[in-house]
Every structure is written in structure tokens, then in C-alpha cells.
């Protein structure tokens, strides 16, 4: 089919994320990608300011990742994980354990970020059942969070301003504390309220789940590392399983390999995804401590009640190991610092607020963004952006050059003016 025919069929038959089927938003046809750039039909090459929703940290068509996929295809593309195992899964688990905060040495390989969060929540619930506390079946979290689109995940997303407010009354009712203060905010005052809320509801709480250091799709809100210490202390005081959802923040995005490291805090369960495979294939993982693994096995089922068909997919595991090998050289840290320096130019934009953390830049407007107009303005500057709500932001590939980062800043400025 021609480009026009492909787009017409797409518009008539394909759902895209968070769009209407009857009145869909415009889409662009991708014809290729390499490095930090994607090629759009009718536009040409543009810098990808989104890293394909924060996953393509090494850029596109990376020779090491390409070769990992090709090499695995010569062996086995997929095999069931029930009763079988294979080298790519074992090697990936070994690498994850080596990189993750110490003590997180039990690995569940999931097929998406949402599934890894679902699994983490099951771990917490089954752990409490194994401890003889089946009445502890709710979760403590904070407002402004986002943890995925499946049902239990939606229940711990922001209950009012989040994308899932329409499901109120259908989802399990969780316990929400106030959003942590912004960088430089009053942590002590926030912590006092959060501790009081936890104490009030402790007898029915199974776990505490948060995105450490940076709340992603709930509002791109960074907060002080001291808050992570509060989360750990609250979990310990009340016997809660502490879950850190690092699907967006893991693998260097905020400046440390895992956001938890900024405060020296180790959660009981760690969820990773997105950048795990460098954006090549869908894969995620939930890592937990031996204590959590033993505790949930003490329950009535004796096993973790989850097992996706594509659990431990060999292709995805092989490319994930290659991605982690690239990260292990440490070059990402200098790249993130360099990108952070370039993103400081965003502070020159006239906006309600500008936030920069690691390789994340956020411009908040005082009104909802006109996504179509803002996107077009960014493309005119040679940059692909995907704004939402009142935010125009970037989380680019780490391989972006200084010129790429400057173009991204110019694109965001143009999008802010247009949107």
C-alpha cells in the first residue's frame, strides 16, 4: 500500500494509545529510524525527544542490540517458560541481580510494565496471606502516581487527576497520601501527614507502592530523595511490602542507575521495564528479596499465582542482556549529565513551571496543551514530541548529541508557544 493508503487504513481500523476510534487524532507514518532520529513520511528525519516513550535509551538500530536479536533468532525465538528454561533468561536474571540494589535477587520476568506491577502487587498480597494477615489487602501510595493501565495498576494511579478516574467505584479502593513536595519543598511537613495516614490504615495495608524520585505519566513530578527514606521507614514500621515502580526511572534516567540509589534505599520489590530491552521488545521484571519470596510461598497456594505465555521470551531476554551490557560500561552516566546540562535551556521558556532532572525536561503550561498544534510546532523544529495534559516534556535517547538536545529545547519552546 502507498503511504496514503496505509494511513487511511490505520485511521479506519487501528486504535492508538488514548485516542478515539470514531474521531482519531492524526498519526504520522514512520519509515525508518537510526541513532537518535526517526524518519517520518512527508517530513524526513526528526530527533526523537521521547525515546519511544522512554525506552530507546541507546537509540535505534544499535549494532550491538541488532546483533543480539539476530544471534538469538538462529537459536530459538520463543519457548514456554513453564517447566523449561534457557540461557538468555538465566543470563538476564544474573545481570539484573548484579545491577539492582543488593538483596533483590529473586526475578520474575513479565511481558510488560503493567504486568510487572500486577505481579508486584500480588507478591505483597500473597506475602501478607503467608504471614497470616489476609485482611491486609489494600495498598498505600501517593497522589499523582501512574503505574499502568491494567486494573490493579489503575487502582494505585492518581484517583482524581489521573487517566483512570472514570473507573472510580469499579477499582479496589486504595489509600492515597498527599503527593510528595517538589524539589526543595518541605519534606518534614509532608512526612508527618504521610506517617499519620499510614498508622491510621496500617491494619488493612499489604504494601506501599510508589515511583521513586520522579512520578511519570501522572504529571512528570520530581521530588526529594529524602522521601524515599520516609517510605522505607513507614513500610518497616507497619510491616508493609515496599514496591518501587522504576519502569520509567530505571536504567539511568534520573542520574543514578536506579532512582532508589539516590537515597540509598532498597525496596522489597523493584519493577523495571521500558528501557530494559533498549526499546527493542516488550519485557519487564519484578525483582524481590528472598524474604518476600519465602513469605508469599508460605501462603495457601504455595506458589506465585502468575505465568504469562511469553514469560522469559528468549529474544527479549537476549536483547535485554545486551542492553544491560551497554549500560555496564558506565558511559550512560556522562551522557545523562551532558543531556541534563543541555536541558537547562528550558528554564528560558515562559511557562508555569520548568523542571529538569537527569535526562528529563518538563515544561508545564497554565492550560491544557493543544496536542496537534504543539506536535506540529515541534516537527517544524525537527523534533518529535508527545505532550499530554498541560505538559510538554522530553525523555530523549542517551545517544543524543548536544545539537540534538538543543533542537529538542527549541522544539519544546515552539510547542509551548503553539500549544
TrEMBL record:
<feature type="binding site">
    <location>
        <position position="307"/>
    </location>
    <ligand>
        <name>substrate</name>
    </ligand>
</feature>
<feature type="binding site">
    <location>
        <position position="53"/>
    </location>
    <ligand>
        <name>substrate</name>
    </ligand>
</feature>
<feature type="binding site">
    <location>
        <begin position="308"/>
        <end position="309"/>
    </location>
    <ligand>
        <name>pyridoxal 5'-phosphate</name>
    </ligand>
</feature>
<feature type="binding site">
    <location>
        <position position="245"/>
    </location>
    <ligand>
        <name>pyridoxal 5'-phosphate</name>
    </ligand>
</feature>
<dbReference type="GO" id="GO:0005737">
    <property type="term" value="C:cytoplasm"/>
</dbReference>
<comment type="subunit">
    <text>Homodimer.</text>
</comment>
<keyword id="KW-0663">Pyridoxal phosphate</keyword>
<comment type="function">
    <text>Catalyzes the transfer of the alpha-amino group from S-adenosyl-L-methionine (SAM) to 7-keto-8-aminopelargonic acid (KAPA) to form 7,8-diaminopelargonic acid (DAPA). It is the only aminotransferase known to utilize SAM as an amino donor.</text>
</comment>
<dbReference type="InterPro" id="IPR005814">
    <property type="entry name" value="Aminotrans_3"/>
</dbReference>
<protein>
    <recommendedName>
        <fullName>Adenosylmethionine-8-amino-7-oxononanoate aminotransferase</fullName>
        <ecNumber>2.6.1.62</ecNumber>
    </recommendedName>
</protein>
<feature type="binding site">
    <location>
        <position position="274"/>
    </location>
    <ligand>
        <name>substrate</name>
    </ligand>
</feature>
<dbReference type="InterPro" id="IPR015421">
    <property type="entry name" value="PyrdxlP-dep_Trfase_major"/>
</dbReference>
<dbReference type="InterPro" id="IPR015422">
    <property type="entry name" value="PyrdxlP-dep_Trfase_small"/>
</dbReference>
<feature type="site" description="Participates in the substrate recognition with KAPA and in a stacking interaction with the adenine ring of SAM">
    <location>
        <position position="18"/>
    </location>
</feature>
<keyword id="KW-0093">Biotin biosynthesis</keyword>
<keyword id="KW-0032">Aminotransferase</keyword>
<dbReference type="GO" id="GO:0030170">
    <property type="term" value="F:pyridoxal phosphate binding"/>
</dbReference>
<feature type="binding site">
    <location>
        <position position="386"/>
    </location>
    <ligand>
        <name>substrate</name>
    </ligand>
</feature>
<keyword id="KW-0808">Transferase</keyword>
<comment type="similarity">
    <text>Belongs to the class-III pyridoxal-phosphate-dependent aminotransferase family. BioA subfamily.</text>
</comment>
<keyword id="KW-0949">S-adenosyl-L-methionine</keyword>
<dbReference type="InterPro" id="IPR005815">
    <property type="entry name" value="BioA"/>
</dbReference>
<dbReference type="InterPro" id="IPR049704">
    <property type="entry name" value="Aminotrans_3_PPA_site"/>
</dbReference>
<feature type="modified residue" description="N6-(pyridoxal phosphate)lysine">
    <location>
        <position position="274"/>
    </location>
</feature>
<comment type="pathway">
    <text>Cofactor biosynthesis; biotin biosynthesis; 7,8-diaminononanoate from 8-amino-7-oxononanoate (SAM route): step 1/1.</text>
</comment>
<dbReference type="InterPro" id="IPR015424">
    <property type="entry name" value="PyrdxlP-dep_Trfase"/>
</dbReference>
<keyword id="KW-0963">Cytoplasm</keyword>
<feature type="binding site">
    <location>
        <position position="146"/>
    </location>
    <ligand>
        <name>substrate</name>
    </ligand>
</feature>
<dbReference type="Pfam" id="PF00202">
    <property type="entry name" value="Aminotran_3"/>
</dbReference>
<dbReference type="GO" id="GO:0004015">
    <property type="term" value="F:adenosylmethionine-8-amino-7-oxononanoate transaminase activity"/>
</dbReference>
<dbReference type="GO" id="GO:0009102">
    <property type="term" value="P:biotin biosynthetic process"/>
</dbReference>
<feature type="binding site">
    <location>
        <begin position="113"/>
        <end position="114"/>
    </location>
    <ligand>
        <name>pyridoxal 5'-phosphate</name>
    </ligand>
</feature>
Amino acid at each position: 500500500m502507498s503511504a496514503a493508503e496505509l494511513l487511511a487504513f490505520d485511521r479506519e481500523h487501528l486504535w492508538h494509545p488514548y485516542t478515539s476510534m470514531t474521531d482519531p487524532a492524526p498519526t504520522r507514518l514512520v519509515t525508518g529510524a537510526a541513532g537518535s532520529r526517526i524518519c517520518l513520511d512527508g517530513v524526513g528525519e526528526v530527533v526523537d525527544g521521547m525515546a519511544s516513550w522512554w525506552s530507546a535509551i541507546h537509540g535505534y538500530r544499535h549494532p550491538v542490540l541488532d546483533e543480539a536479536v539476530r544471534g538469538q533468532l538462529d537459536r530459538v525465538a520463543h519457548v514456554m517458560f513453564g517447566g523449561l528454561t534457557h540461557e538468555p533468561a538465566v543470563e538476564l536474571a544474573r545481570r539484573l541481580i548484579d545491577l539492582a540494589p543488593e538483596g533483590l535477587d529473586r526475578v520474575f520476568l513479565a511481558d510488560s510494565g503493567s504486568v510487572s506491577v500486577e505481579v508486584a502487587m500480588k507478591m505483597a498480597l500473597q506475602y501478607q496471606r503467608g504471614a497470616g494477615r489476609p485482611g491486609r489487602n489494600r495498598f498505600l501510595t501517593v497522589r499523582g502516581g501512574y503505574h499502568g493501565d491494567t486494573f490493579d495498576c489503575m487502582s494505585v494511579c492518581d484517583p482524581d487527576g489521573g487517566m483512570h478516574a472514570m473507573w472510580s467505584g469499579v477499582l479496589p479502593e486504595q489509600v492515597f497520601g498527599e503527593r510528595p513536595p517538589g524539589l526543595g519543598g518541605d519534606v518534614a511537613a509532608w512526612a508527618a501527614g504521610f506517617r499519620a495516614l499510614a498508622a491510621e490504615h496500617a491494619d488493612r495495608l499489604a504494601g506501599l507502592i510508589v515511583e521513586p524520585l520522579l512520578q511519570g505519566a501522572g504529571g512528570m513530578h520530581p521530588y526529594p530523595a529524602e522521601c524515599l527514606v520516609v517510605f522505607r521507614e513507614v513500610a518497616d514500621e507497619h510491616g508493609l511490602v515496599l514496591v518501587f515502580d522504576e519502569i520509567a526511572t530505571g536504567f539511568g534516567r534520573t542520574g543514578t542507575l536506579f532512582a532508589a540509589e539516590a537515597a540509598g534505599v532498597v525496596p522489597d520489590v523493584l519493577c523495571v521495564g521500558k528501557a530494559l530491552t533498549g526499546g527493542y521488545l516488550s519485557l519487564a521484571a519484578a525483582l524481590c528479596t528472598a524474604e518476600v519470596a519465602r513469605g508469599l510461598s508460605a501462603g495457601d497456594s504455595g506458589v506465585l499465582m502468575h505465568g504469562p505465555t511469553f514469560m522469559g521470551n528468549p529474544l527479549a531476554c537476549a536483547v535485554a542482556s545486551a542492553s544491560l551490557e551497554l549500560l555496564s560500561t558506565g558511559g550512560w552516566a556522562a551522557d545523562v549529565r551532558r543531556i541534563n546540562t543541555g536541558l537547562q535551556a528550558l528554564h528560558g521558556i515562559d511557562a508555569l513551571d520548568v523542571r529538569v532532572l537527569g535526562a528529563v525536561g518538563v515544561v508545564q503550561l497554565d492550560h491544557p496543551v493543544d496536542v496537534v498544534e504543539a506536535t506540529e510546532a515541534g516537527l517544524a523544529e525537527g523534533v518529535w514530541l508527545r505532550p499530554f495534559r498541560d505538559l510538554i516534556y522530553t525523555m530523549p535517547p542517551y545517544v543524543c548529541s548536544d545539537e540534538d538536545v538543543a533542537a529538542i529545547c527549541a522544539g519544546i519552546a515552539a510547542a509551548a508557544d503553539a500549544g
